[in-house]
Design a protein that fits this description.
By secondary structure, this protein is an alpha+beta fold. It has seven helices and ten strands. It is elongated and about 75 Å long.
């Protein structure tokens, strides 16, 4: 029961399910955002770049725009500038919550100052830092690769997903060892009461970390994010209709 609960709790904080249910949107290109410009990346090269509010370059050439076209470009790329950091934030928040759950479990079982917990905490700190640097080049610079949001696991770039699974697997091994030692001990408290205490503590973790509230918050953010992308898709269609050079442009693809 203890191991099953750990696996269920840890896995529940991947935003994959929420996105699969709520977001039928794909990003067909990579996007880089920094304070001075937005770049759309195709096959590793800059396809579109917008400097400031509406200075548009396509394949390195500046495109003259009417006032109406400038307004469309500004509205669309301002939206992109707002939404890409948001999905990066959701991805990082989701992983952080999941790692805190596992961390809390291990601390409750082995003790916060145990070698097992200290090792786990170090792994978490390093992983969280690398995930942040994967998406955030600096405080105001973001990158996201082409994404199919009904398969959001890809946002973690594979290597992180595998590392998270490895950490959880290692954590489960620690729990098995700790519980096994308790059960095999001749000490009555350890052998009879401690396993029950551990299971009871698992039930308290959700309350302590306010997990239901955090799940609800993440799901709400996903819902708002997806709706905003759909709104931007409508503006993207206007770009296709009003700027000849952007006729085939399709960053946001609605399934």
């Amino acid at each position: 029961m203890l191991l099953r609960n750990l696996v269920l709790i840890a896995s529940s904080f991947c935003v994959h399910n929420a996105l699969a249910e709520q977001c039928d949107i794909n990003l067909k290109y990579g996007v880089i955002i920094d304070p001075s410009h937005v770049r759309i990346i195709e096959h590793g090269k800059t396809y579109i770049q917008v400097n400031g509010n509406h200075q548009l370059f396509i394949n390195g050439s500046e495109i003259p725009l009417s006032d109406e076209q400038k307004q469309l470009v500004s509205e669309y790329f301002s939206g992109i500038r707002e939404q890409i950091p948001e999905i990066v934030s959701i991805a990082i928040e989701s992983v952080d919550v999941g790692l805190k759950v596992v961390n809390k479990v291990i601390a409750g079982i082995t003790g916060e100052n145990s070698a097992s917990h200290q090792k786990l905490q170090k792994q978490f700190d390093e992983l969280q830092w690398r995930i942040r640097t994967r998406f955030n080049h600096s405080d105001n610079s973001f990158y996201i690769a082409p994404q199919d949001f009904d398969n959001f696991d890809d946002v973690l770039a594979g290597e992180f997903e595998e590392e998270i699974e490895a950490i959880i697997t290692d954590s489960i091994g620690t729990i098995v060892s700790t519980v096994g030692n308790a059960i095999s001990s001749h000490d009555i408290e350890s052998s009879e009461q401690r396993p029950n205490t551990l299971v009871r503590n698992m039930g308290n973790i959700s309350k302590d970390l306010k997990l239901n509230s955090k799940i609800s918050t993440i799901e709400s953010k996903v819902s708002v994010f997806c709706q905003q992308l759909k709104n931007l898709n409508t503006i993207e269609q206007k770009l296709n209709e009003n700027i000849i050079k952007l006729k085939s442009f399709n960053l946001i693809d609605k399934n």
